[in-house]
Amino acid sequence: MTQSPAAQAARRRTFAIISHPDAGKTTLTENLLLAGGAIRAAGQVRARGENRRTRSDWMKIERERGISVSASVMTFDHEGLMFNLLDTPGHEDFSEDTYRTLTAADAAVMVLDAAKGIEPQTLKLFEVCRLRDIPIVTFINKMDREAQDPFELLDEISTKLALDPAPLYWPAGSGGRFKGMVDLRRNRFLPFAKKTADDDGHPDPIAFKSNAVVSYLDPDEQAEVEEGSMLVQEASKPFDPQSFLEGHMTPVFFGSALRKFGVAELLEGLGAYAPPPTTVPALRNGETIHVAPGDREVSGFVFKIQANMDPNHRDRVAFLRLTSGRFTRGMKLKVQNTGRQLSVNSPIMFFASDRELAEEAFAGDVIGIPNHGVLRVGDSLSETGTLRFAGLPNFAPEILQRVRVKDPLKAKHLKKALEGLAEEGVTQLFRPNIGADFIVGAVGQLQFEVMADRLANEYQLEVAFEPAPYAEARWLGGEKVDVEDFAGKHRGAMASDIDEQPVFLAKSTWEIGYVAERYPKVRFERSKERA
């Protein structure tokens, strides 16, 4: 018998993994799936050629470069809980995709490189988590390499992130001297073994004060780890689950994702402490209400669109984070802003690029809805079509470039492809009111490279990017008459975005300041929330 929506939601754990590039996020993702029993063999991120087959990095460019440039979703059952793992791009050029993905997460795992500590991109992503009040679990990775002193790493978390670190484990050495870690809650020692490729196992945990510890630690090492674990327990606040949920404290785990050490413990911690889905504020007929996971009405919001996950089928999938109710296959849902009704006959549960039909799903789950341009990022769906969840913002791009197709006969094809990628949120697209060239906006240069790669592989379009005569883009706000007056006097610098919203393209930041002074009734906005 199917449990109630509230009971089903209570066993969901939906979390995102965030990190600076190269901290080991993708390897950790692979081995969480392995520890959770979702796959039999983790992809070898560092392997070459045909051996490089990570499950979460499924785009060609991701496999070639060994980086994540697109958020992906993986769902698996483990010990009575349903985990929805949202893998985010580590590269800062894709921070907007990461921001959107974090709107769908109830918790985040922050992966730190034990040698480098908190790096700039980690700091940026942490700020996003803080904006959204997302509780953070810390995994200090690569302990099998030379690492910073663990007390210094904890101090960095405390000072740079203003979070109370609460270690649940304590490492015995690092690099060549890494011997394992002490489980501070159960007073056990988890030995680390340098494994061969054929051997995935580590020795079983043993009582820390038992005679068996001498098999793994010499007397000096034992004294060192005993002293460290005592000191850290005296110096740190004890782990308080409520303080963690409120965003004041982070439980700290140590390990080596590559050696599959500490990963099962992290998964256990997520199951025990990460929050299940909670109530979400929404607007209904102009009034703010709170949608609870156990509510009867099925509802959710689209946080990502991905085209061509299956290159053979030219597909287009909307990622829907469910917020309430019991969804069943074939159900009809309405899009709030258009009133359009969708029959969801082929909902997908994701396993990176692999997928299977979802017969039912509950709050916290992420399902894929195949559609052709009907759904957009930020859309709210529900059975009545009256619920509107907070929209997902677009941010002003930092680089603007012209894009031209090398074969002029394919200009129409280019327009459709660019619109498709813009709807996904890969880049932003502006159509100048005067002139035929498209202007593409992005956060960083790598986005243009990914875009060119995808246009070539998925749409068979060879394109060239050229510098645009603009440096900044701003959405216009204010009374319609004031916006139209400004746009009429600056026709040469006006463009429309994909939603036909007016955009002012400026040659410099100074120019924005200058026109803002001359037109005080017009707002020049750095972000836009889709209505």
Which keywords apply here?
single chain; 531 residues; alpha+beta; Rossmann fold; Alpha-Beta Plaits; 3 domains; 8-stranded antiparallel beta sheet; 13 helices; globular
Question: What this model shows, in words?
Answer:
This protein is α+β, with helices and mostly antiparallel strands. The chain has three domains: 249 residues, 3-Layer(aba) Sandwich (Rossmann fold); 112 residues, P-loop containing nucleotide triphosphate hydrolases (Rossmann fold); 136 residues, Peptide chain release factor 3, domain III (Alpha-Beta Plaits). It is 26% helix and 31% strand. The strands form seven sheets. It has an eight-stranded antiparallel sheet. It has an eight-stranded antiparallel sheet with strand order 29-26-28-27-31-32-30-33. A seven-stranded mixed sheet has the order 2-3-1-4-5-11-6, sandwiched between helices. Helix 5 links the parallel strand 4 and strand 5. Helix 2 packs across helix 9. The radius of gyration is 25 Å and the shape is globular. The two termini are 40 Å apart. About 6% of the residues have low confidence.
* Strand numbers in spatial order across the main sheet: 18-17-23-14-15-22-19-20
The radius of gyration is 25 Å
CATH topology label of the largest domain: Rossmann fold
Name of the CATH superfamily of the largest domain = P-loop containing nucleotide triphosphate hydrolases
Find the count of extended strands (DSSP E, 2+ residues): 34
Strand content: 25-35%
Give the low-confidence spans: 40-59, 61-71
Number of domains: 3
Multimeric status of the protein: single chain
Largest sheet: 8 strands, antiparallel
N/C terminus separation: 40 Å
Q: How many helices in DSSP terms?
A: 13
The CATH class designation of the largest domain is Alpha Beta
Rounded mean pLDDT is 83
Looking at the overall shape, the CATH architecture of the largest domain is 3-Layer(aba) Sandwich
How much helix, percentage-wise, in residues? 25-40%
Shape by Cα distribution: globular
**Strand-pairing-aware structural class:** alpha+beta
